[in-house]
Amino acid sequence: MASNKKPRLKDGALRRFLSVVLITLLGVVLLIFLLRTNPDSNLDQYSTDDDQSSNFSNFGKLNLPKQNDFSIFLEKRNLLPPRNLDLFPKLAKDHITIVLYVHNRPQYLQVVANSLSQVVGISETLLIVSHDGYFEEMNKIVEGIRYCQVKQIFAPYSPHVFPKSFPGVSPTDCKDKDDPIKKHCKGNPDQYGNHRSPKIVSLKHHWWWMMNTVWDGLKETRRHMGHILFIEEDHFIFPNAYRNLQILTALKPKKCPDCYAANLAPSDVNSKGEGWDSLVAERMGNVGYAFNRTVWRKIHKKAREFCFFDDYNWDITMWATVYPSFGRPVYTLRGPRTSAVHFGKCGLHQGQGEKVSCIDHGVANIQVEEIDKAGNINSEWGVNVYKHQAGYQAGFRGWGGWGDERDHQLCVEFANMYHFKNMSSPS
Ligand SMILES: *[C@@H]1O[C@H](CO)[C@@H](O)[C@H](O)[C@H]1NC(C)=O
Ligand SMILES: *[C@@H]1O[C@H](CO)[C@@H](O)[C@H](O)[C@H]1NC(C)=O
Ligand SMILES: *[C@@H]1O[C@H](CO)[C@@H](O)[C@H](O)[C@H]1NC(C)=O
């Protein structure tokens, strides 16, 4: 070791060094002072915003969990450029970005990836695959995609990435219905008395992290002004999905000013649509939904509602708290025939093998009729509005599973994550 060879600073050099340190310190203090007092600074944009999220704005002091090496590795990997830039160097000007969020069902993902390969117009856009956890088999499928630009992102704070500590399980955590005082364990039970389960909370965390990251974080999408379509690892996408969605998003402002989004599938996941010669406006569905940045800003402002509602399902949280808080009915516009099918529930229940489903040898048993192969929405159609549909709404207390303050905090930090890093970036 060369530790005894450390050169000693000569007096003059020491003085010069100290004055540089002093000047730097003064500069930093002055900068902080200016940023805090200048009313035009972009930081203040968030604190004077009329939204409640300003309540937990904390001037860059993010309180995210301490990352392990793997988490840091994933965060860096998220900065890699999309794949297939050689094949598809340019995105179409008015493209609708597609975000596919996945966990670990490779057999399903393969079906979805194959269905996307048949989608007319897919080569015009960017597909982002957002992973909850890191699984080689899942990566292989995504790496095999050659029909459009593809970018993978990995939730760096996924419970699946933290084997020994929060957001994963730590040895001192309470389990099930443990009494924190008697057991000397950590955690807050939900409204039904149950403690957090990392596997269960990971879905809502992933969704919220992904939304924040796609809209406000990623270089590729944070300035995207059009719509973004969100699909899941068990959504079969019809060949006409992209073209239909382009028509729907174009028709939306005229035909349905109350519509916040466009959907590929009916909100009733068992329905394939009515087959009418008419558009349909109904409550937001959770299969193939697309909205724009204006709507995202509205959702982001309701971060507290989202993060503190005691239900581990992101979609039920949206229906029961976020949408009702907009103060107006929240409709989505769709065609009369579905362009996406949720196949994950066909017989697959927790604990059962992957085989008990609509999938045989990796091929989904989903019939695509000739009429669903090309765009089949007529711009001249009127709109049928479903009013007062049944379903989760304001007043529902939630299914629980989301009572731990650490989960609330992490969720809130995801909403702050990209709002303090780059002071000059637009909101
Ligand atoms: C701000 O946060 C505090 C503490 O978390 C809470 O008591 C208060 O109600 C919040 N205010 C608003 C306007 O949300
Ligand atoms: C986004 O969609 C909403 C709801 O359809 C609409 O009111 C708004 O004008 C759209 N924003 C942009 C920038 O197109
Ligand atoms: C911050 O945002 C500005 C403009 O919005 C951009 O030019 C700059 O590259 C961004 N800096 C970083 C570090 O992302």
UniProtKB/TrEMBL annotation:
<keyword id="KW-0808">Transferase</keyword>
<feature type="transmembrane region" description="Helical">
    <location>
        <begin position="12"/>
        <end position="35"/>
    </location>
</feature>
<feature type="binding site">
    <location>
        <position position="342"/>
    </location>
    <ligand>
        <name>Mn(2+)</name>
    </ligand>
</feature>
<keyword id="KW-0812">Transmembrane</keyword>
<dbReference type="InterPro" id="IPR029044">
    <property type="entry name" value="Nucleotide-diphossugar_trans"/>
</dbReference>
<keyword id="KW-0735">Signal-anchor</keyword>
<keyword id="KW-0333">Golgi apparatus</keyword>
<feature type="disulfide bond">
    <location>
        <begin position="256"/>
        <end position="259"/>
    </location>
</feature>
<dbReference type="InterPro" id="IPR007754">
    <property type="entry name" value="GlcNAc_II"/>
</dbReference>
<feature type="binding site">
    <location>
        <position position="234"/>
    </location>
    <ligand>
        <name>Mn(2+)</name>
    </ligand>
</feature>
<dbReference type="GO" id="GO:0006487">
    <property type="term" value="P:protein N-linked glycosylation"/>
</dbReference>
<keyword id="KW-1133">Transmembrane helix</keyword>
<keyword id="KW-0464">Manganese</keyword>
<protein>
    <recommendedName>
        <fullName>Alpha-1,6-mannosyl-glycoprotein 2-beta-N-acetylglucosaminyltransferase</fullName>
        <ecNumber>2.4.1.143</ecNumber>
    </recommendedName>
</protein>
<keyword id="KW-0472">Membrane</keyword>
<dbReference type="GO" id="GO:0009312">
    <property type="term" value="P:oligosaccharide biosynthetic process"/>
</dbReference>
<keyword id="KW-0479">Metal-binding</keyword>
<keyword id="KW-0328">Glycosyltransferase</keyword>
<keyword id="KW-0325">Glycoprotein</keyword>
<keyword id="KW-1015">Disulfide bond</keyword>
<comment type="pathway">
    <text>Protein modification; protein glycosylation.</text>
</comment>
<dbReference type="GO" id="GO:0046872">
    <property type="term" value="F:metal ion binding"/>
</dbReference>
<dbReference type="GO" id="GO:0005795">
    <property type="term" value="C:Golgi stack"/>
</dbReference>
<comment type="similarity">
    <text>Belongs to the glycosyltransferase 16 (GT16) protein family.</text>
</comment>
<feature type="disulfide bond">
    <location>
        <begin position="307"/>
        <end position="411"/>
    </location>
</feature>
<feature type="binding site">
    <location>
        <position position="132"/>
    </location>
    <ligand>
        <name>substrate</name>
    </ligand>
</feature>
<dbReference type="Pfam" id="PF05060">
    <property type="entry name" value="MGAT2"/>
</dbReference>
<dbReference type="GO" id="GO:0008455">
    <property type="term" value="F:alpha-1,6-mannosylglycoprotein 2-beta-N-acetylglucosaminyltransferase activity"/>
</dbReference>
<dbReference type="GO" id="GO:0000139">
    <property type="term" value="C:Golgi membrane"/>
</dbReference>
<feature type="disulfide bond">
    <location>
        <begin position="174"/>
        <end position="185"/>
    </location>
</feature>
